[in-house]
Amino acid sequence: MNSIGKRSTRVAGLGGVILLSAVTIFAAGPRQGNETGVPSAQAWAGARIIDGTGKPAIENATLVIRNGRIEAVGRRVKIPAGAARIDATGKTIMPGIINAHGHVNDPAQFGVYLRDGITTILSLGGAKEFDLREQSAKASPGTAPHLYVAGLIQDSSAIPGAVAVKTPEEARKSVDELIRNKPDFVKVRVDDFLGARQKMSPEVYRAVIDEAHKNGFRTAAHIVLLEDAKGVLRAGVNYIAHSVRDREVDEEFIRLMKKRHAFYSPTLTRELAVFTYSETPSFFTDPFFLKEADPAEMARMEDPKRQDAMRNDPAALWYKEHMLIAMRNLKRLSDAGIVIAAGTDSGGGPGRFQGYFEHLELEYETKAGLTPMQAIVSATSGAAKALNISKQVGTLEKGKWADFLLLSANPLDDIKNTRSIESVWIGGVRVPDKKQ
Question: If you ran DSSP here, which 8-state letter would residue 433 be given?
Fold first, then answer.
């Protein structure tokens, strides 16, 4: 399953049931056991706990964790005998952040995500993802996030990370080859890149979705336009992995989303990364950003020639113009009761900074009109529902993995406070600090 232990997954039926088994080491440092003197449990006492369900924060609460899982949480929790008591007065504890649409391209990126509080990732398309999932499963405790993957994207062109399928027959054959590796989603891309290339036809994407479903695998769709989003929903897709950006969503789209019990990932920061580097963005001075940002990538984004090109790039201008539509659509869908799963497309292109963009996404969700609590839910229980892993992660509830962030400030006061991270814990193991 990653640093928490060995993972076994199988998707059964369209519900995509994920079976998880794990053996865990509880705390960083010495192996656990009475002979070492390490307590068998820890009790974080006096904290404000945001449990990820959307319910009001629990003030002056206690979180008890044992053997990597949550044993108890609440205000009236009795601290077990022998448990190590940790004073968390004035601190906020929230679930680890789930990125329901990112991209992991190299195991070195595990630590970047984790240190920024991203404990679970759906890497939604790439040639190396099955190997990366295996590496994550074998990683030492506290050093890799829970990683779910899609493998090669089913597309109309064989661009990096994708395979080209031109006919329904090719699509079915490609899906059959893909699912030998048991992806967590089968992803289809329906996009002509603003007229730059051929778009996948409905006959082909219907074959992709149908073949995946026939074999018990869930599906996700990259879309841009409302009509394409409706088309993949009519074909039965489970997950809309980007915002509808060309125009306002309508009642028909909302009905289709509800009929299919589909999930929606806004990836607002994906749009931001397309147009924001026409100048040096303000977040380039954010200390939280700078602690993990790749200086070489920053330099590329600050190159004057690149910035000048972005100022006049038709695609960048289109996405900048349509960003507000994407934000309005997010608000409308949230108000309509559609489950929002926070995603960023981080790692999927230049300037999409992993770890930081997940926090920036939450900021933009609140700019779109969601409350800080709604934004947090989108990156915790909402994302867990989209990935069908709610029984294991996404909320701080008894029996679930102890994946949580200790914050020095309250994100309900200001969503930017999700960046006030004092420590990150995954499966009860503290994530090590960055090596200098």
Answer: P
Kindly report, residue by residue over 242-258, the tens digit of the pLDDT: 999 999 999 999 999 99
Tell me the pTM: 0.92
Q: Give CA–CA dist 266/271, Å, rounded.
A: 10
Contacts of 109 (CB under 8 A, 6+ apart): 347, 354
Distances (CA, A) of 425 to 65, 67, 315, 405: 11, 13, 40, 6
Name residues of the chain where pLDDT drops below 70: 1-39, 436
For residue 23, which amino acid is it?
Answer: V
Give pLDDT, residue 25: 28
Give the angle 177-262-131 at the CA atoms, nearest 5°: 35
d(CA 80, CA 71): 10
| Angle (CA) 295 297 299, round 5° | 70
Query: Longest Cα pair distance anywhere in the chain, in angstroms?
Result: 66
Q: What pLDDT sits at residue 435? A: 84
Are 380 and 118 contacting, i.e. CB atoms less than 8 angstroms apart?
no
Sequence-ordered alpha helix ranges (H) in 166-263: 168-178, 202-214, 226-234, 251-259
Neighbours of 383 (CB within 10 A): 31
Alpha carbons 274 and 271: distance in angstroms, whole number: 5
CB 330 within 8 A of CB 365: yes
**Closest by Cα among 148, 207, 146, 189 to 16:** 148
pLDDT (0 to 100) of residue 39? 63
Distance CA 20, CA 8 (A): 6
- What are the strands, taking DSSP E only, across 105-185? 118-123, 146-149, 153-155, 162-164
DSSP SS3 for 13: coil
In angstroms, the CA 72 to CA 66 distance is: 9
CA 53, CA 400: separation in Å to the nearest integer? 13
The DSSP bridge pattern shows strands 84-87 and 118-123 to be unpaired
